Amino acid sequence: MKYISALLLIFFQLTISFAQEAVPDYFLEGKSVILISSSPQARPSMQWHDIATDIHEGLLAIGGDPVGYYELEDIALSQEVQAGYASAFSKRLISAIVLITRKSNGQVAIHIAPYTGNAAIVPASGIWGLEADNLGSLMQSLQTIGQQVKSRNFLVLEVPEFPNSEAGLESSRRFFARNPLNLDAFKLGIPLSGAAGDAGLLMGYRYDLLGKSEQAVIAEQLAEKSGLEQLFEAHYPFQYEFLTNPRGDAELVRERIQFVLMRLEGKEGDLMQSMGLPVENPEEKTRIVVKYYIRLIVRDELYIGPVWDADPDWRKALTGFLKNLQIK
Questions:
Q1: Rounded to an integer, what distance in angstroms lies between the CA atom of residue 80 and that of residue 188?
Q2: For the segment 238-257, what is each residue's pLDDT rounded down to a tens digit?
Q3: What is the CATH number assigned to the segment(s) 4-169?
Q4: 90-118 as b/e, with b when 16 or more CB fall inside 10 Å?
Q5: Shortest CA distance to 293 belongs to which of 172, 119, 195?
Q6: Which of 105, 95, 42, 28 is nearest to 68 (CA)?
Q7: 184: helix, strand or coil
Q8: pLDDT-derived band of residue 151, with 50, 70 and 90 as boundaries?
Q9: What are 100's strand-pairing partners?
Q10: How far apart are CA 298 and CA 283, in angstroms?
Q11: What is the predicted pLDDT for the residue at 2?
Q12: Is a pLDDT exceeding 70 seen at residue 8?
């Protein structure tokens, strides 16, 4: 899956000091952006804006200067979108990223990471964290920690701010709702887990991914390769090659790989908007789906196909996408 390699980095490299050490200096001495991921199954039901309103006081209590709240799924929608937000964060001189995750069982985790200054946004290590059974308990813990913290941030916002969420969406203009030409003339590269680098670290804090066991991640990785092979043998009549390690565009083109299979995973309404598709009431299309598309390397064009075929099950999404490639 798209983010397996990044999740493995989290499992093997992440060093979290669960409130055993002081709040990090980079949080106390600079501005923070807060990214929230909340399960729609958690009870009582809360929108991410509601969580932002509740958590703001706690972040101020522990010496923070939160200058903007976003939904994590909006930021981590794709590598391009993530890079766009990273650029905006750099311009605002952000020093810390605060990640709030509310799982389906109501448990809430907060992680404070140094902003990397690049598209990864968060590093794989050096992250402070705290967990609680619910949002109220987390707030109490933050208030307790705050009694021992001397804030170095002044003139902070007394209420949460929700900046315009268009910073990373400019790439939507390059998506085309049709199939690419000449698939029969060149190979299609299929990146496997391990070829994505650090791009998916941020997604590891999504409500349905945070805390997933190493065994579960490895099992998904093995299932991914096996499933991909079966689907391509059944539904793709042209040449393809699995990519097991990162390769530059020039190297791929030299090896006659002009197309690369890409994958996005996120809320359906957000994905459709980011790809430039008309969608009514996108805020109501909240299911997490997978959407495949093809990148033409030489022109850096992105082809999503003539039919919307996203699905929560990546196998169904890919099967539909491969079948729709036959549409003239």
A1: 21
A2: 999 988 666 678 888 999 99
A3: 3.40.50
A4: eeeebbbbbbbbbbeebbbbbbbbbbbee
A5: 172
A6: 95
A7: coil
A8: low
A9: 36, 110
A10: 35
A11: 42
A12: no
Residues 292-314: b if buried by 16+ CB within 10 A, e if exposed: bbbbbbeeeebbbbeebbbbeeb
pLDDT of res. 264: 85
- CA–CA gap between residue 163 and residue 251 (Å, rounded): 40
Cβ-Cβ contacts under 8 Å for 155 (sequence gap 6 or more) = none
Please list the helix, strand and coil fractions of the chain in percent, rounded to the nearest 5, in that order: 35, 25, 40
Please count the other Cβ atoms lying within 10 Å of the Cβ belonging to residue 19.
Answer: 16
Separation between Cα atoms, residue 67 and residue 91, nearest integer Å: 13
Q: Which of 327, 225, 311 is nearest to 319 (CA)?
A: 311
Query: Percentage of the chain with pLDDT > 70?
Result: 84
182: left (phi over 0), alpha (psi -120 to 50) or beta: left
C-alpha torsion sign, points 62, 67, 70, 76? negative
Nearest to 312 by CA among 283, 291, 294, 293: 291
Highest mean pLDDT pick, 155-159, 215-219, 262-266: 262-266
Query: What's the token pair of residue 214?
Result: 């190493």
Q: How far apart are CA 142 and CA 56, in angstroms?
A: 11
- The set of long-range contacts for 141-146, using a CB threshold of 8 Å and a minimum separation of 24, is 141/19, 142/58, 142/59, 142/61, 142/62, 142/110, 143/58, 143/61, 145/19, 145/23, 145/61, 145/62, 146/58, 146/61, 146/62, 146/63
Cβ 95 vs Cβ 114: under 8 Å? yes
Q: How do the domains of the chain map onto residue ranges? A: 4-169, 171-324
The number of residues in the chain equals 328
- Judged by DSSP in three states, 205 sits in helix
